[in-house]
Amino acid sequence: MTNDGSCRGVTVVLAVTAIVALAALVLAILTVTRGQPEFIFNTSSGNRSNINSPSVSDVNSGASVSYRAQEDEDRIWTFAVGHSGKSLEYIDETGGLSGFHIDIVNAVCMIANKNCRTMFMPYINCWDSQAGHWPRIGVGLADRWFDACTGWFVTYDRLRTVDFTHAFRKGYYAYFYVEAGNPGNFNWRNITGKKIAIGDGWASDEYCIKRNDDKITGIVLTGNQFVHYVTAADAEQAVLNGEVDAAFMNTNQFYNTSLIPVSDEITNCMKDGGAMMFRKDTRLSNWWNPAFDRLKESSQYRQICETADRNHGHMPGEIRCVD
Length: 323
Known about the structure:
This protein is an alpha/beta fold.
C-alpha cells in the first residue's frame, strides 16, 4: 500500500508539472505572436488585406523621409546651357557661361537654397529633330547627363516627351523670311514645291507650319521640302545663295538678319515661353516653381530683366520677361 501510494503521488506531481510547463509554453508563444505585425498581402491589387497591420514602409517611413531629405539637400542640380551667341546665353570673354539664363538659374537656386551648376552643352543633346522625322528628346537629357535644359520653349510636340517648369521668359512669333525685295516672289500661303529652311530642334519647325494648314497649302512633311540647319546664320545663308526659297524662324532667331519677313505672324508654334525642360520622372518643378514664383513676386526678377541690356546688351537678341 505504501509503495503504491507513493507511486501514485509522484505520477500526479509529474502530470501537474507537465501541464503547467505546457501552459507556460503556449502562453509564451501567444505573447510573442501578438507582439509581431501580421502581414497579409493581396498580390492582385497590391494592397494589404488587413488594414490594421503596419507595413514595412509604415515602420520605416520616418527613416525614408529623413534619407530623402538628406539626399535632396546634398544633391547638386545640373543645368545644360548652350551658346546661342545671343544675350540669353553665351560664352563670355573669360570662357565662362553668361547671359539672362545664367542670371535666372543663380537667383532661383539661391532662393531655393539648392546647390546648382550650369554646364555647357550643344543643343542637340537637349532636343533633336531631323527632316522627315518626329522631333525627340536629346540623348543627354534622356540619359541623365544633366537634370534640365535651360530656357527651352514649351511646345505641343515636346510635351509628349518631357515636362517644363513655369516659364521665365515669353515666347516669340514666327515668320517666313526671304531675301530683301523677295526676288523669288515667294508666296507663303502656297509653298507647293518650295524648299524651306528650318532650325534643327527649334520650336518654329515644319510641324508648326503643318498646324497652320488652314491658311498654308502645299505642305509635305516627307521628302525634302524642309531642310534643317544647325544655326540661324546657316539658314540665312541658304536663303541668300538660293539653296532654299525661304526660312521659317522666330523673331529672336533672326533678330539681326538681312532677310525680311513676308508672312503674317505665326502665333501657335509655342504653347508657353522659355522654361526649364526636364524628364517627366524628375522632381525639379517641386522646388523650382515655388522658388521662381517668389523671385517673380520680388523686385529682384525685374532687376534681372531691367539690367539685362546693361549686363548682356553687347550681345544680340531680345529678352522678354513674363508679366
